[in-house]
Specification:
alpha+beta; 10% strand; globular; four-stranded antiparallel sheet; 2 domains; 4 strands; 242 residues; 51% helix; 12 helices; Arc Repressor Mutant, subunit A
């Protein structure tokens, strides 16, 4: 097996790309596919050079990116590089690291990709409300159709927590009927962040949000409670612990 060499970086003063800590601490440990990793990093590099808000890139631009396509197709074979590109984007969008929005205006249909940040989630929500400023669709024509992809609860669980069982699948179906998908996605992200990768913890967050309101401090209290396996006994027999 031959390995291509790399002559090293030209200088210490070259342009650097800012990558959030969360990429290394929470996202990278989850990624198993080299294609997904390459597409995600290349998107970060492209978007770091954009100005304005939100920063986004259209699929047609990615499909013409020679450097990206070359990095995705390293072996000979009948499968075109664009197939690897679509696979990497699909994995990243399903995982939740990247947002995808497809828009129609006049005779134009475009698909845009954004990093999944709080600001970009707000921008995508505004798209659904009919506002497309800043997404590169000039012209007086109103938006005719906006389609935003959001992974369902099953995809979120499999990508971030683990394999589905029949019991978990039944509970996820009930959760989809009871809670907004945005709540489920955020609860899954918190479970990963606090290293509580189980449905019991996710369900506790959702139930607490439903009962008390969606407050930023709630998941922290759940995390603290989850540290103590005897918390139920202590609450029931509290007088014995005084």
């Amino acid at each position: 097996m031959s390995v291509d060499g790399f002559a090293g970086f030209e200088s210490e003063s070259g342009r650097y790309v800012s990558v959030p800590d969360a990429f290394f601490l929470r996202l990278l440990p989850q990624i198993r596919s080299p294609v997904e990793l390459k597409v995600t990093l290349h998107l970060m590099w492209i978007l770091s050079q954009r100005t304005g808000r939100p920063r986004c890139v259209e699929y047609a631009e990615l499909a013409r990116d020679a450097a990206l396509l070359q990095s995705l197709k390293l072996e000979e074979g009948p499968r075109p590089a664009q197939d690897f590109l679509r696979e990497g984007l699909e994995l990243a969008v399903t995982r939740g690291s990247v947002l995808r929005a497809s828009l129609s205006r006049g005779s134009t249909r475009q698909t845009w990709f954004l990093l999944n940040t709080a600001a970009n989630r707000a921008a995508v929500s505004s798209l659904e409300a009919g506002q497309s400023e800043g997404l590169g669709l000039p012209g007086p024509e109103p938006l005719q159709d906006v389609e935003v992809y959001r992974p369902n609860a099953f995809a979120l669980y499999e990508q971030n927590i683990g394999p589905l069982t029949a019991m978990i699948a039944e509970q996820l179906r009930a959760a989809e009927a009871a809670y907004p998908l945005e709540w489920i996605g955020e609860a899954v992200r918190l479970a990963v962040e606090y290293n509580r990768r189980n449905w019991r913890y996710i369900q506790a967050i959702l139930q607490r949000w439903e009962a008390e309101g969606k407050d930023d401090g709630i998941h922290r209290r759940i995390a603290e409670e989850d540290e103590d396996p005897d918390r139920y006994a202590k609450s029931r027999y509290q007088h014995l612990y005084r």
